[in-house]
Design brief:
The chain has twelve helices and no strands. The mean pLDDT is 82. The chain starts with a helix and ends in a 6-residue tail after the last helix. It is mainly alpha-helical.
Length: 269
């Protein structure tokens, strides 16, 4: 009996048919530059929160880094769902037009929703950064300690033969090379993952750098995952609209019955 009442109260899901477009349509290429810009903004967020996560306790650094990655992924997921829902709504309109016998241009039909378009656009947008990460993956090596700056009060000791030869190592300067520039770029793109690796040692950091082409996609690919849910979000919206319409109709019927009762003549006994 309870199962029967649950089935009666359960709202009917409204799934409207749509036209399915192409995952590599012109719309995907228009989305790609925005994905590139979003990855640059993600790198800024990574660096900002990683500076804030400079805790002495490794556990706190680990929690903060994982939270940063999760927040970025979730934000990209919501943006992807919004874009996917808009494309699904557009696909509903074109499907209705096609059912009416209208001719749909090929470009407009290809623009319709496809669940893989978000992931494809994200890969296109991330392609320059993936190439940089792959190049650096072959150059990455364990990080070695480097001498710091010689204190000012020690510079007078350089004139002494006994200490001068030892302190001359501090005078050796090395210019920044291409590997250093690539390391800076890769670490900005994957800073929370680098922080996680730091918790487990230099060897873990080395593996993060070698696999940076994969880690750079973790946050941005939330957009692709969210976009694939665009049709499901559109279905929930259509279901909500239908529930609102049905609720309005029930109120109108109830109000009509009340007016009919009030307008009917009273019986005289």
């Amino acid at each position: 009996m309870q199962q029967k009442s649950k089935n009666i109260n359960q709202p009917e899901v409204v799934v409207k048919p749509i036209l399915t477009g192409s995952w590599k349509s012109a719309e995907a290429y228009r989305m790609a530059p925005k994905r590139t810009l979003s990855i640059l903004l993600i790198a800024v967020v990574y660096v900002f929160f990683s500076v804030m996560a400079g805790f002495d306790q490794p556990v706190l650094r680990l929690i903060m880094s994982l939270a940063t990655i999760g927040i970025v992924f979730f934000y990209q997921y919501t943006k992807g769902m919004e874009k996917g829902e808009k494309d699904a709504a557009y696909s509903e309109i074109l499907y209705a037009r096609k059912q009416e016998g209208r001719t749909i241009p090929k470009e407009e039909e290809e623009r319709c929703f496809h669940p893989l378009r978000g992931a494809y656009a994200t890969l296109l947008g991330a392609l320059p950064f993936i190439i940089i990460c792959l190049v650096y993956a072959f150059l990455a090596k364990p990080w070695a300690y480097q001498l710091g700056v010689l204190p000012g009060w020690m510079k007078a000791e350089l004139a002494h033969n006994e200490l001068g030869d030892a302190l001359n190592y501090y005078q050796v300067t090395r210019s920044m090379n291409a590997e250093d520039i690539l390391r800076i770029i890769v670490r900005c793109l994957t800073m929370p993952f680098i922080n996680v690796g730091n918790v487990f040692g230099n060897q873990a950091v080395l593996w993060v750098e070698r696999l940076s082409a994969l880690f750079v996609l973790v946050g941005p690919m939330g957009f692709g995952v969210g976009y694939s849910r665009g049709h499901a979000l559109r279905t929930r919206i259509n279901t909500g609209i239908m529930q609102g319409v049905e609720k309005k109709k029930r109120k109108e019927r109830k109000a009509r019955r009340q007016r009919q009762r009030s307008s009917s003549p009273e019986r005289l006994i």
